[in-house]
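Figure 3 (text version): structure tokens given as input.
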């Protein structure tokens, strides 16, 4: 019997070591896995760094809350730090839950002579508003903040750190006071605030930068602060400058919150590996779109090709932007012999149809593929007999300042009893009547297009 397990060589295979930047987290353990050390390690590894850790406390917790917490002795914390610092070339470090004034002072003493960037995530106020440190611990943070390259409190934590004269400081005021306490920079996050927009304020010696992004309507934010500070730390370890590290960290954390992990009996937790999973699907998404295009060529979808052409768009599973959607460059057009794609499939090749698909995914994240077909008398009959929900919108009602595709998707998906799989409009001045077919799989889109093609053929469409 022979066994084939891979390439055959006369000698043993040589190892090929991989050199990664080293990141360090100094924080508490979350037995539920959603926050703390566990979230930090996943986020740091997702950014292609080698994560090391110093455990400051052990908690018995899950998605519904904390059952028990034990803070380690300062000597145990110091021993872990010295073991890591003695063996690894740490590129950047962060702190999380420290637990007591003694541990805060111990960590400050450990990092005082460090040459790597330090991100201080001051875990001192729980999501419920409860204080996690006594007054002595809060005072001890003042010296640790002075060692920080960046401190990343939410608004409540920032107010505690800088004190209050009876009025809550604005995020900018709090950040500026943190710089006065010795931090090189401060990022006051807005995730715990209200409103439809999250505003994170970064203050450095160079000025003030606000990062604004839509608030995500979810309670599954467990681990969001940890993942943000860990991502920034990993980006610093990889050599990014501070503002670039912060910007990338905010984008990463927003996606991790947008696609939370449905685990446990509580709201769930953020998904620190979401970008890794998304990137891993990139090539298969291109291949799938290419396969659907080949299917349309084989079917000869000429009767469905609009004057502006036809396209096929596929989104990666966690796509957030046009450059994460693959489409035909130059669209599909009619020829004497049928239809052909003008060029190949690449990411970012579509803007119009891609924007519609991304906007539709805001309402139904399972949607991953879309195409457009011309609206005729025959395809209209096809919509009437389609075994899937159909929605219409009036392009003449579009507000002047709106983006057509964003506005159209929001309009039809908001008011539909079932998420539509075909969205049509009668056109407007300079706008061709159109059908947009969307689906979660290429097979679903292909089947709907085949139905419309059959109706077009039955109606004698050329």
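Below: residues designed for each position.
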């Amino acid at each position: 019997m022979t066994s084939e397990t891979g390439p055959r060589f006369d000698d043993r295979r040589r190892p090929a070591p991989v050199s990664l930047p080293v990141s360090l987290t100094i924080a508490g353990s979350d037995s539920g896995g959603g926050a703390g050390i566990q979230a930090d390690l996943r986020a740091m590894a997702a950014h292609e760094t080698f994560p090391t850790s110093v455990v400051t406390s052990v908690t018995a917790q899950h998605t519904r809350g904390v059952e028990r917490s034990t803070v380690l002795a300062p000597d145990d914390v110091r021993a872990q730090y010295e073991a890591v610092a003695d063996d690894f070339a740490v590129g950047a470090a962060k702190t999380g839950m420290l637990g007591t004034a003694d541990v805060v002072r111990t960590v400050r003493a450990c990092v005082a002579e460090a040459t790597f960037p330090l991100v201080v995530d001051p875990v001192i106020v729980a999501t419920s508003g409860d204080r996690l440190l006594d007054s002595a611990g809060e005072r001890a943070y003042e010296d640790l903040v002075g060692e920080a390259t960046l401190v990343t409190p939410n608004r409540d934590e920032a107010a505690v750190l800088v004190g209050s004269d009876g009025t809550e400081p604005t995020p900018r005021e709090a950040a500026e006071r943190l710089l006065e306490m010795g931090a090189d920079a401060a990022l006051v996050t807005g995730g715990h605030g209200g409103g439809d927009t999250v505003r994170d304020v970064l203050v450095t010696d160079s000025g003030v930068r606000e990062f604004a992004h839509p608030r995500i309507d979810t309670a599954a934010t467990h681990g969001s602060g940890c993942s943000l500070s860990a991502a920034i730390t990993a980006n610093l370890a990889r050599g990014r400058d501070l503002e670039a590290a912060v910007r990338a960290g905010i984008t990463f954390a927003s996606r991790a919150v947008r696609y939370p992990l449905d685990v446990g009996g509580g709201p769930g937790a953020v998904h620190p590996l979401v970008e890794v999973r998304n990137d891993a699907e990139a090539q298969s998404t291109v291949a799938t779109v290419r396969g659907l295009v080949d299917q349309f060529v084989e079917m000869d979808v000429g009767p469905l090709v609009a004057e502006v052409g036809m396209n096929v768009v596929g989104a990666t599973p966690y796509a957030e932007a046009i450059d994460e959607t693959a489409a035909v460059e130059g669209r599909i057009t009619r020829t004497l012999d049928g239809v052909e794609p003008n060029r190949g499939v690449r990411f970012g090749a579509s803007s119009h149809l891609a924007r519609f698909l991304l906007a539709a995914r805001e309402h139904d994240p399972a949607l991953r593929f879309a195409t457009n077909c011309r609206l005729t008398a025959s395809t209209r009959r096809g919509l009437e007999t389609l075994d899937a929900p159909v929605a219409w919108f009036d392009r003449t009602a579009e507000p002047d300042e709106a983006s057509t595709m964003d506005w159209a998707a929001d309009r039809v998906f908001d008011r539909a009893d079932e998420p539509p799989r075909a969205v049509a409009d009668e056109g407007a001045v300079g706008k061709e009547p159109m059908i947009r077919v969307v689906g979660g799989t290429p097979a679903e889109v292909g089947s709907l297009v085949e139905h419309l093609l059959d109706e077009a053929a039955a109606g004698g469409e050329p």
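The mean pLDDT is 91.
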